[in-house]
Design brief:
The protein has 120 residues and is mainly alpha-helical. The chain folds into two domains: 46 residues, no CATH class; 71 residues, no CATH class. The protein contains four helices and no strands. Helix 2 runs antiparallel to helix 3. The chain is elongated and about 85 Å long.
Length: 120
């Protein structure tokens, strides 16, 4: 590699950009990262009312420190999956239970009773 030897050293996100393309690699890496994190923040702002999405945002922000330090996308993907899998499981259970309870509420019985009370 023309830009340095990182054998035995931890490659940060900036170092990863440096190794792939020097100053141009750092600039491109930081621009893409800034754009992605900006989109992620805007997504959070639009979804502040949803507790599951807020929890995903908070956990992701805490894990981003490791990404800035280590820079590896594969290890980050595995770590994010490990930390956020319980949230996705609870989100699935919540929606599954809410779907079942909504089906019980809207089985047509309530509407039929309401119409009979209106029209006698």
């Amino acid at each position: 590699n023309d830009y340095g030897d990182f054998n035995g050293l931890t490659v940060s996100i900036v170092g990863d950009g440096w190794m792939t393309g020097g100053w141009i690699g750092v600039i491109i890496n930081m621009c893409l990262g800034g754009f992605g994190f900006g989109c992620f923040y805007n997504w959070f702002i639009r979804n502040q009312h949803n507790i599951f999405k807020v929890t995903i945002f908070i956990i992701t922000n805490s894990v981003l420190l490791q990404m800035f330090r280590d820079g590896g996308i594969v290890s980050m993907s595995k770590f994010m999956l490990f930390t956020q899998m319980p949230i996705f499981v609870w989100w699935f259970i919540y929606h599954w239970m809410m779907k079942a309870s909504k089906q019980d509420l809207y089985d047509g019985t309530f509407e039929a009773e309401e119409q009979s009370m209106r029209y006698g």
